[in-house]
């Protein structure tokens, strides 16, 4: 990890309250893995509001241009500040942070990526990496509406297959992305599975996968302070032994965990 | 840093000698190992470790964090891997890296502090001092519940002092109104310095769900929001001339550090700022040195408690 001040190359609105920011950083390009994140200062030098940095997963890297991107949704003062920045401005961030996804461990050739909402952001970087390594990737993405139409354009640029569901039927098939997973669960047994999305999606996936004895990994998020494992603030409960549990930090122990180990309360 | 940095920066708190007054606060810097990837942590006056207990503590139920205006509300609950983990895993690394270490410890009562001190005895040569956490608001036993009772403050301090030869620092809570009495009792017990302030008890509620924003309902507030409270507490305690003070609570830059020293702090602690400015220790140390240059201050000790109130 390194503390970096990188030039913003572009900061585009790609949907309602949805933005893509591209930042110049040879260091991040060289050192990051899919699933890792950066912790960005979301206030100007002279102010302390908001106080804490905000974590954003790495959405894409473009080695030819030495740039990486984040996708973000306007939520509060931090993301509002980010949305006002433009090309030429400087982003103050630390990264790459957390445990990313390495390919060496996987002998499998088939990968299923399940993304819900803004959770598709880090899975894009993973899809691109897997595709470049010659793997078969199936990207299942679920949204509320058609706000992620431009995201589909990005997927079309990758040599992968994909399916999109939206809750109101305005983008892809109508329904929840978990509907697709239920329908095709038996096919997905031979896939390595990575998910990123809201807790409600994880709860449903956990149920489906436990019934079918399917393994899956997931990327988690929590409110963070330090981002580097020192404050122990961003913890979640995970299984430990037969009936026990343990708190693990999302920032340092994660954000990648075995989905079946997570305990949702 | 310029060539003058380092000159005139040393401070003394009782028998505790620091090469400069910049100390990292407990719980915001772990043992300093992570931050050493970003700058040379050995340049700091001292690193106060996360509070370690006799046995590992799992900490409180999440969510443990909530940002408030210019502040951070937390209810971590002193999650830690236990004192043996510090001794076996962190100590060899921090020794090799040349950090100056103040070991923060937490116990439920004097007996537990005694057991901790006994374990620490074999490594005390590697420590500058121990800090007794008698002020955490997020634990059921120990912390503030112990640190607000004058007799307990004296007993615990004396119990640790009896076993260890290194200096003892007592960290007190701003949630007490009898700080002078507590500091006096810490002194009676053999403490050489007071760390002030720990977090201020606080709460936040989600108006949509009606639920508290912290899993533990109530937490401790840190960050710039609490700075004026810290300055006043330090100013008031300094006037009593009981023990030297390590001043902390919302310092975000070198100007704040100077302000704390003017109020009466002999050294300053950096906490929440470490999450915002990862190089805060280095930046604030450099800032203090430049300020001294610009004001022709030869020794930083010359400004301690020098606020002009009339």
Question: Outline of this structure?
Answer:
Chain A is α/β, with parallel strands linked by helices and 265 residues long. Chain A is built from 6 helices and 16 strands. Chain A folds into 2 domains: 2-97, Elongation Factor Tu (Ef-tu), domain 3, CATH 2.40.30; 110-219, Rossmann fold (3-Layer(aba) Sandwich), CATH 3.40.50.
Write up this protein.
The complex is a heterodimer of chains A (265) and B (310). With 265 residues, chain A is an alpha/beta fold. Chain A has two domains: 2-97, Elongation Factor Tu (Ef-tu), domain 3; 110-219, Rossmann fold (3-Layer(aba) Sandwich), CATH 3.40.50.80. Chain A contains six helices and 16 strands. Chain A has helices spanning 26-31, 77-83, 120-132, 149-156, 177-184, 199-212; strands spanning 2-15, 18-24, 37-40, 54-57, 60-62, 67-73, 90-97, 110-116, 136-143, 161-166, 173-174, 192-196, 217-219, 235-240, 244-249, 256-258. In chain A, the strands form three sheets. In chain A, strands 4-3-7-1-2-6-5 form a seven-stranded antiparallel beta sheet. A seven-stranded mixed beta sheet of chain A has the order 11-10-9-8-12-13-16, with helices on both faces. Chain A has a two-stranded antiparallel ribbon with strand order 14-15. In chain A, α5 packs parallel to α6 (199-212). Chain A is globular and about 55 Å long. Chain A starts with a strand and ends in a 7-residue tail after the last strand. Chain B is an alpha/beta fold. Chain B has a single domain (11-59, 78-200, 222-303), classed as Aldolase class I (TIM Barrel, Alpha-Beta Barrel), CATH 3.20.20. Helices cover 32% and strands 18% of the residues of chain B. Chain B contains nine helices and 14 strands. Chain B has helices at residues 83-97, 110-121, 144-147, 150-163, 179-189, 227-239, 254-263, 273-276, 280-294; strands at residues 11-13, 16-18, 22-24, 46-48, 65-68, 71-74, 101-105, 129-133, 168-171, 193-196, 200-202, 219-222, 245-248, 265-270. In chain B, the strands form three sheets. Chain B has an eight-stranded parallel beta barrel with strand order 3-4-7-8-9-10-13-14, surrounded by five helices. A four-stranded antiparallel beta sheet of chain B has the order 5-6-12-11, with no helix packed on it. In chain B, a hairpin with a 2-residue loop joins β5 (65-68) and β6. The longest helix of chain B has 15 residues, at 83-97. The radius of gyration of chain B is 18 Å and the shape is globular. Classes of the chains: A alpha/beta (265), B alpha/beta (310). At the A-B interface, β14 of A face β5, β6 and α8 of B.
């Amino acid at each position: 990890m390194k503390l970096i001040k990188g030039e913003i190359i572009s900061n585009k609105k790609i949907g309602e309250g949805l933005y893509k920011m591209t930042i110049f950083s040879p260091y991040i390009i060289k050192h990051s893995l899919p699933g890792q994140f950066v912790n960005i200062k979301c206030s100007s030098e002279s102010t302390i509001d908001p106080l804490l940095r905000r974590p954003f997963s790495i959405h894409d890297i473009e080695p030819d241009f030495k740039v990486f991107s984040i996708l973000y949704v306007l939520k509060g003062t931090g993301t509002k500040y980010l949305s006002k920045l433009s090309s030429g401005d400087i982003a103050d961030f630390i990264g790459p942070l957390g445990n990313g996804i390495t390919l060496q461990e996987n002998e499998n050739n088939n990968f299923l990526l399940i993304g819900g909402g803004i959770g598709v952001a880090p899975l894009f970087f993973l899809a691109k990496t897997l595709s470049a390594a010659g793997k078969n990737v199936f990207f299942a993405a679920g949204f509320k509406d058609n706000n992620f139409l431009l995201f589909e354009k990005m997927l079309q640029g990758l040599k992968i297959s994909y399916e999109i569901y939206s809750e109101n039927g305005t983008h892809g098939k109508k329904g929840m992305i978990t509907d697709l997973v239920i329908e095709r669960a038996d096919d997905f047994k031979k896939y390595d599975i990575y998910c990123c999305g809201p807790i409600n999606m994880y709860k449903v996936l956990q149920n489906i996968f436990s019934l079918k004895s399917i393994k899956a990994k997931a990327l988690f998020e929590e409110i963070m302070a330090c981002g580097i494992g020192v404050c122990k603030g961003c913890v979640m409960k995970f299984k430990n032994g037969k009936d026990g549990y343990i708190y693990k930090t999302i920032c340092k122990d994660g954000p990648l965990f075995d989905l079946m180990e997570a305990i949702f309360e | 840093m310029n060539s003058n940095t380092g000159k005139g920066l040393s401070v003394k708190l009782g028998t505790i000698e620091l090469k400069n007054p910049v100390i990292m606060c407990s719980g915001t810097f772990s043992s300093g190992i992570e931050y050493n990837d970003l700058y040379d942590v050995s340049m700091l006056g001292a690193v106060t470790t996360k509070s370690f207990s006799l046995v590992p503590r799992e900490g409180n139920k999440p969510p443990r964090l909530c940002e408030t205006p210019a502040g951070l509300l937390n209810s971590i609950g002193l999650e830690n891997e236990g004192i043996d983990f510090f001794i076996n895993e962190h100590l060899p690394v921090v020794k090799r890296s040349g950090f100056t270490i103040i070991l923060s410890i937490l116990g439920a009562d004097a007996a537990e502090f005694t057991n901790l001190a006994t374990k620490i005895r074999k490594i005390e040569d590697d420590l500058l001092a121990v800090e007794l956490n008698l002020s955490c608001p997020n634990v059921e036993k120990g912390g503030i519940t112990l640190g607000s009772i004058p007799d307990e403050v004296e007993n615990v301090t004396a119990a640790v002092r009896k076993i260890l030869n290194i200096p003892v620092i007592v960290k007190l809570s701003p949630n007490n109104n009898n700080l002078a009495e507590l500091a006096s009792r810490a002194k009676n017990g053999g403490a050489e310095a007071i760390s002030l302030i720990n977090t201020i008890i606080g709460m936040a509620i989600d108006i949509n769900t009606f639920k508290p924003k912290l899993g533990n309902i109530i937490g401790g507030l840190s960050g710039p929001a609490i700075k004026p409270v810290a300055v006043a507490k330090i100013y008031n305690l300094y006037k009593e001339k009981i023990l030297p003070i390590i001043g902390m609570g919302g310092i975000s830059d070198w100007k704040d550090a100077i302000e704390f020293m003017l109020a009466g702090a002999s050294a300053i602690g950096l906490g929440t700022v470490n999450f915002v400015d990862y190089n805060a220790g280095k930046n604030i140390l450099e800032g203090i040195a430049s300020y001294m240059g610009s004001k022709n201050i030869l020794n930083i000790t010359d400004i301690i408690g020098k606020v002009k109130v009339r």
